[in-house]
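Work Package 3 (structural annotation) set out to generate three-dimensional models for the target panel prioritized at the project kickoff. During this period the team completed the workflow that converts sequence records into discrete structure tokens, so that structures can be stored uniformly alongside our sequence database. As a representative example, we reproduce one entry of 191 residues exactly as it appears in the project archive.
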Amino acid sequence: MDLVAGQPALEKFFDHLGEGVLLFDRRGQVTFANTAALRRMPCAVGVSFAEWQGVLGVELVDWLRHAIATSPGAMRTPGHVNSRAAASSRGLAATTPPAAVMSDGSTADVAWQVLGSGFYALRLHWRDPAPVDALPASTITGPVIAELMQVLWHSPFPAMLQDTRWRIVDVNPAFVAFSGYPREKLIGSDP
């Protein structure tokens, strides 16, 4: 299967999974995050590994960086060492990724799969259940934004969060009442 041609179908499938799925390209940038991943961590499509260290943990990001660098289809730079021995000499396992340790202290078991030349999938299975009424994570921090999110999220006005592809990531209770649909049916849909 041609991955580029089949990617929309894969993304639609991944969006129906309850576990987080991130798709990476050969540059180590996230090209897709399914709804489950977006609900559990502040991710953004197009960000690089350096920005993921605070989200997934340094050990996993280091492992991912080396897994991509030593896989078929990886981009090579002058002076790049392409060998599993180099990864092993740094104490990195060649096949089993370490668990993700999120910035909030929660952990996730990880599975890694090469999808095609230069495309990779990371599955995250959280060890703890997701809080049902948690506020969606904001990539903007600070006391003013946190207060604004609280006011907006608990207001009587319908509010929803969408990702870069306009899929609904989360809705507030007023939006559920306004739409007439259960929250679980709304999340992941494209209005």
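The two ends are 29 Å apart (CA to CA).
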